[in-house]
């Protein structure tokens, strides 16, 4: 008798939908909040070749950081890296290519809408740019706090994305940078999970 795979597949799909749905809700909340506080998102989405190119090029330093992070033998960072791989290996769904693409796009749009388009822009309306940049990314880091180190790294990445936004004066650039980086990071994560499972597999 063949084992029934329907239940595990349904559970996987439900967990994935919950993760993506939560991020979509964040994007919708950003649109509403932006309207309420007077920082509408549409005017910030000026589409230009320059903004798109900056968005693509700005992905490179983040990708280089990821390469360094994935290869460093610093004990603290190596232990943190292992804990993150273990976390994602047990998240409840497989990182297939279509899912990776969806997660990268949704996170890039929703998180940039909220943190750069609304929070950073709103604070920048009554405070110096540096204050807006730092304050919005303290919030960004805290909302990514699975661990303190993860929050610090997320905050620094957010700071970088905030600078990209300021430089281009368009949300398109950090959306592209964020989405492309998440795509690269999730591809790396998938490969790291596969390697982790191979090492963790008991010898027959």
How many structural domains in the coordinates?
1
Describe the biggest sheet? none
The arrangement of helices and strands along the chain is HHHHHHHH
Overall geometry comes to globular
**How confident is the prediction overall: mean pLDDT?**
92
**Rg calculated over all Cα atoms:** 18 Å
Low-confidence stretches: none
Helix proportion: over 70%
Structural class: mainly alpha
Q: Given the structure, what is the number of helices?
A: 8
Strand content: under 5%
Q: What's the total number of strands?
A: 0
Instruction: For the record, give the distance between the C-alpha atoms at the N and C termini, rounded to a whole number.
Output: 24 Å
């Amino acid at each position: 008798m063949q084992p029934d795979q329907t239940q595990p597949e349904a559970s996987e799909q439900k967990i994935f939908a919950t993760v993506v749905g939560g991020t979509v809700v964040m994007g919708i909340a950003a649109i509403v909040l932006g309207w309420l506080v007077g920082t509408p998102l549409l005017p910030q989405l000026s589409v230009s070749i320059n903004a798109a190119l900056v968005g693509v090029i700005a992905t490179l330093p983040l990708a280089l950081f990821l390469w360094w992070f994935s290869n460093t033998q610093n004990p603290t960072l190596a232990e943190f890296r292992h804990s993150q791989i273990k976390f994602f290996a047990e998240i409840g769904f497989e990182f297939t290519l279509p899912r990776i693409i969806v997660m990268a796009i949704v996170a890039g749009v929703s998180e940039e809408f909220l943190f750069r388009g609304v929070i950073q822009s709103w604070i920048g309306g009554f405070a110096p740019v540096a204050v807006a940049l730092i304050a919005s990314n303290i919030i960004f880091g805290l909302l990514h706090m699975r661990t303190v180190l993860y929050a610090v790294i997320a905050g620094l990445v957010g700071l970088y994305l905030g600078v990209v936004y300021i430089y281009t004066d368009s949300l398109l650039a950090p959306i592209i940078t964020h989405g492309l980086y998440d795509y690269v990071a999730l591809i790396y994560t998938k490969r790291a999970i596969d390697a982790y499972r191979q090492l963790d597999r008991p010898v027959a």
